[in-house]
Amino acid sequence: MAWSLLIRNGTVLDGSGAPGEGNDVAVEGDRIADVAPGLAGAAARVIDASGLMVAPGFIDIHSHSDLFYHACPSAESKVRQGVTTEVVGMCSFSPAPVGPGRAELVKAWAGGIGSRLPIAWESFGQYLEHLRRLGPSVNIVQFVGQGALRLATVGPDNRPPTAAEHAAMERYLAEALEAGAFGFSTGLVYPPSLYAFTEELIALARSMARRGGLYFSHIRGEAAMLEDAIAEAIRIGEEGGVPVQIAHIKAAGRENWGRMERALRLVDEARARGVEVTADVYPYTAGSTKMDNLMPSWMHDGGIPRLLGRLADSEARRRAMEECLVDGERWLTLSGATGWDEIVIATCSRPEIEGMSLAALARQSGKPPAEAMFDLILSERASVSMVLFSQSEDNVAKALGHPHVMVGSDSLGLSAGPGPHPGKPHPRMYGTFPRVLGRYCREQRLFSWETAVHKMTGMPAAKLRFKDRGLVRKGFAADLTLFDPATVRDEATYPDPHRHPTGIPYVVVNGQVVVDGPRFNAVPAGRVLTPA
After folding, report:
1. Does residue 417 surpass a pLDDT of 90?
2. pLDDT for 110
3. From residue 90, how far is each of 93, 294, 391, 487 by CA, in Å?
């Protein structure tokens, strides 16, 4: 028997959570041809995996790389982590559908993250064809964002949809599911998604239930209203008849850290009565998003131009400070109260202030921190991102260790290549999956290697209803990650985020070796996946 690739002498962790076994893995084309000890036969390429663990390719269950596939279809910073599949269209945003004459609304939203989407599509199906033409190096699972549905129909305004607009949203959602969307996502702290009422979301969920769609939600609050927000997500799934995924589960703001155990208990209680609810988490105490999301919701009503107008208005600034400023030292949002030294500028047009906290920016400018923040968002036209420190290390471990929580980076896939690289983005873009393996599995022994791999492979594959991915089994897609359990670790830090991990020498996507030792082969090995 001749194969295209033979991986010998490794310990296979098949992704199911079962104990590892000393097996060889044979690949023919894009499929796993055999898994057994001592496979004999010729192969075009042989990899000696002595001392390595052979796992399914990692599935990033919550990613935002669809903002940057047009500029970076290789998603190198993800693939070098062992990721072979990314789930995108998260937190209510997706690049499609685009309503007639509303391309600029979508471009403005993406511009806040630094993306310049070359929108040449309207329908979700046209966008998926665009993705296929890009030739990604990673597999893509695309959701449709409920924010995109609202922008295409209602627009950026804070109001309920009319009956005709809601019918149009359901029509857009049905078209997306027919084209290959896996479901829809919400970002209920981000405009315009935050303007949706629970009943509106239940109706959308019901409309996709018979098609097998999934509901993934950045819930309505991750701080003081954490339990209520999780209960809402569960209600939407329960009454809508669809499975639920709670995005990057956390208790934000130190005054809310004690809520994490109750939040996880809500997941357990819902599952006990038959609701299919799971969650994901990233292994860091800081998150990252657009800085304008620190503004109260009323400032966003009407879109970016209206936001900028309010930022330039002294009365609007005064009202925002009255609502959000706590003792002059902390800023209160749906993500909790955060100190000015805990809010760090990640990317903007001024490299000299990237990596600087708002406290430091205030000292440099000689202005109160809130005014310095308003000025920055206004001058950058809302195109500034931040890293926000709001969580406890204990809670990160509690979430990671929960049996129904999987791993998602909540980040972009960037290309490192030769440096230097702009900005100080969150290190999770480069380090999420090796950090779980190195820090939480090997060093802290939070769980076994088998469990760690299951949380990144078999568990998300089951959530997505994959029939032939997420496990190392004969006939399955040849998505494989080889890592060294003794050395795997994240190297990216907050001050120096553009660093690839160590201890992941090989990553195979659909049978093609994309990470090959020190080399990265930016080949179009990935596929735009559609539901089974």
Report:
1. no
2. 80
3. 6, 19, 21, 32
The model's confidence at residue 373, banded by pLDDT at 50, 70 and 90, is very high
Token pair listed for 238: 């329960």
User: What's the pTM value of the predicted model, to 2 decimals?
Assistant: 0.97
Q: Round to whole Å and give the CA distance between 454 and 471.
A: 9
Do 25 and 480 meet the contact criterion of CB atoms below 8 Å apart? yes
6: left (phi over 0), alpha (psi -120 to 50) or beta: beta
Mean pLDDT of 457-468: 98
Pair type for strands 330-333 and 325-326: antiparallel
Residue type, 263: A
d(CA 65, CA 370): 31
Q: Is the pLDDT of residue 89 over 60?
A: yes
CB 280 within 8 A of CB 406: yes
- Among 295, 318, 321, 302, which Cα is nearest to 377's? 295
SS (H, E, C) 290-313: EHHHHCCHHHHCCCHHHHHHHHCC
d(CA 49, CA 346): 38
Query: Could you tell me the residue ranges of all domains in the chain?
Result: 2-56+468-486+500-520, 59-285+391-463, 299-384
Give the three-state DSSP class for 361: helix
CATH 3.40.50.740, applies to 59-285+391-463: no
Q: 89: left (phi > 0), else alpha (psi -120 to 50), else beta?
A: left
| CATH architecture of the domain with residue range 2-56+468-486+500-520 | Roll (2.30)
| Residue 258 token pair | 């004690």
Whole-angstrom distance, CA of residue 119 vs CA of residue 103: 7
Burial environment of residue 128 by CB neighbours within 10 A (0 to 12, 13 to 18, 19 or more) = buried
pLDDT for residue 418: 67
* Predicted confidence band of residue 1 (pLDDT cuts 50, 70, 90): low
Beta carbons of 83 and 138 less than 8 angstroms apart: yes
* pLDDT given for residue 330 in this prediction: 93
pLDDT digits (tens, 9 = 90+) for 62-80: 999 999 999 899 999 999 9
